[in-house]
Records
---
Amino acid sequence: FNSTTLEKDPNKKQFVYVKMTSPVCTLEKVVLVSYQSGFIFIQTDKPVYTPGSRVLYRLFTVTPDLNPLSKSVNVEFWTPENVLVKTDFIKCTGITPLTYALSDLVSLGIWTISAKFDDRAVQNFTAQFEVKEYVLPSFEIKITTRKKFFYIKDEELRVDIEANYLYGKPVNGKAFILFGIKRDNEKTSLSNTLRRIEITDGEGFTVLRRQDLVNYFKEELDMLQYTLYVSVTVITDSGSDLVESELENIYIVTSPYKILYTKTPKFFKPGMPFDLMVYVTNPDGTPAHRVPVVAEPGNVRGVTHEDGTVRLSINTASDLKQLNIKVSTTVEQLTKDQQASASMVASPYKPTGGNYLHIGVTGGEYKIGENVVINFIIRNTDPDVQTQITHYNYVIMNKGRIMKVGTQERSKGQTLVTMSLLLTEEFIPSFRILAYYTVSTGSHREVVADSLWIDVEDTCMGTLRVTGEKDRDNMIQQPGTSMMLKLQADYNATVGLVAVDRGVYAINSKLKINQGKFWESVERYDIGCTPGSGADTPGVFYDSGLALQTNFQITTPQRSEPICQPQLKRRRRASAILIQERDKKASQYSGLEKTCCKDGMLKNPMGHTCERRTRHIQDGQKCIDAFLDCCKHIKKQIELEKELHKDDDDAR
């Protein structure tokens, strides 16, 4: 099939007809065409630039299986005000270095580089950099807390400060520290927390007392709506150098953990094990490892891995109509009210003839070079049906493509069959396996299927090592001298290098590309809809990203969007719910106050708090009260929907 025959209109949906003819039957399936032809990764040489400087950047263009791709790319530069200032069409060949000159009167703030393939592409790939006036610091400050959160009942929060020159020598001087609270991107400093400490041999610490914090709130629970930040300014003893730094997003919490049902199927097979993968995070969203958890029913226990996940297996009864699950942390040092918990409900898979297939694995995240042992388990209402099952067919998918198909033999009498799968670089960052068998029950023929999503540790697909050519090249270098580098990489590889002053990352280290962002971008284009399983056989195929057509009335629904239809429906339902919430809340008021209420629920593109927006109201206190009430109400609803969407995305 030649893709050049398709219209070059990314806004127009196009389909292909897949037709199969055999002596038994003729089948036809309509399949949606996806315009996702590869990935573009954008790397800048620095995360921050001064006005009048040059932005050096590279475009990495690769195929869906991450091989170099030669293709034209449309590149755009957008200002912090979302104004397009430059457009280029570039012929890229794997790694393409480019430059962009900033003017002296350039807008300060966060800029965006946007790139997309110029042939029918609908997806933009972006990278950001900051433009600001700065002077490279001579030393860097590291701010850390013993805990990544502030528990609402804690008496104090200790903050440790390290200051070292960029060449490693510790700093001696003084540090001025100020704590503050943040909500809706609006910061409020706590003036009574300003203090000065000594920095000796590069180290110092300070403490935020609980009483200094609660004095700013009418109610203790109001603190949960804010995060803490700490600003630090260090001055050397000589007074010649001054550096500022800030640590943000210290969450105020009632529990130090959060539980998500990430990558957990929403359907179970009655009478068979149900595997759920629990994801435990710290308040800032980072994985929480070595956290003990317990799942009910069954009192199933486990401990999270380095990536914050733990796979648990719950036994189910053959007549179970609904599976109610609750997972809680069981950390010894925490009281009962400090433990985190979360619940979910799984629905039963609905077979047409009483036949089931369950795919299971043990463990959590797998590494390249390891063998994954995949278990195929069957259950049949009529045991005689099992004589028809001589093998399982399976399909393995990765990065939106089918990478392997095969069969796994089954001997007579086996209810459990295992298959060992060696993981290679091709399986990164994750893969899906779908398996099925076919049986006849009476006059009906049935396809019985199950699927599973398996995570693989993110790592390099190739080999790259950078060292000095000789021992003296690995030693500290003098300004103005040269050094030789030695590169070790895969045969015929192209390597891009960049040299950056470490001081730049002391100013801004958030916007540089890293391996995590790389794989996150790849994962985003998984064509599957769920972590596995489905409501029935067509649901299993559809949610895995596959189309199924048979001559015995088993078929997947037509896919009309490149992304999963269930997610689109979910978001449309969410929008409808918000509209209903607005109408319901406004109905509590009348006259002028109703108008004020509706104004409070309008979109707030500037990101101001509800309290700040009331400063411009001149229609009396009742109008202000109605505005504030409705503004806070709709804000809470929007945050709830965002959290639900995040949980949905995490569960993919």
---
Amino acid sequence: PQSGDQVLHLAPEVLLGEQPTLSSDVWQVGLCMHFMLTGGLPQGRDQCEATHGSVRAVATHHVSFHQPLWKEISRQCRVVLRQCLTIDRLERPTSAYLVRKAEWLRAAMQGISTLLAGLEPALHE
């Protein structure tokens, strides 16, 4: 069980009393991505207390991507993030789908692999 404001980090369905599933983990991935990109949690989750009203609100209101900073984030990244942070757990992609089909994520992973390959000779000096 979660205590205090930590409950606001949970997936919507878990906030509403359902058991966590793999789909809840996909929500958590989206939450982490959102935090890494913006420095905050969606829906102001990191700025409010865990009251009955705030828990209900974050569990039922869609995450908005209309703030100006989202114009600086690639469309592909926004699509993946929007999919991960979908309120309805049945509409979220699986983690396998994200790894196989998310063009943005694949490109990022390939870029990291290329970077690491370029660093490898320096590591052996």
---
Amino acid sequence: MPLLPLKLPAWLQPRRHCQLCDEPADHPRHAICSACETELPWLGAQCQVCAVPLPMAGLICGACQRQAPSFARVEAPWRYAFPVDNLITRFKHQGQWPYGRLLAELLAEHLQHAYDEGLPRPQALLPVPLARRRQRRRGFNQAQMLADWLGRRLQLPVHDDWLQRRLDTPAQQ
């Protein structure tokens, strides 16, 4: 006898709570409330190349004008400030994966909007390999996890074997 789908009464359905303030999350795709999403440190006017904050949009900073970096563009939705800095730290150094997933979902939404506005889509995502010792200690590669989440959400291939770490460089803080 096949089981029929059971519709739970509203009071029995699990409720999503904002991962930042613990209030009910009103966003259908990720666990953050509208108030907290509005309060994120959104990066407004920025350099068209490196994303350093600038007083006006559409400009290229002096450093990028003097010497062009080895990359074409940085796409950054937020300044590295509270609560984004805290989410990154809790994901990267404390292994609290739901915060990384939240960052990936918010970033994917930002990128999809940018693609819809004309930003060229990349052909693939290439996560930077973590130093072996650091990956053993941490237990995961946060760049790999973010790339996997973004790749699924944005329907982009992820090539985790295209880059190799040649030097065990000091950790960035």
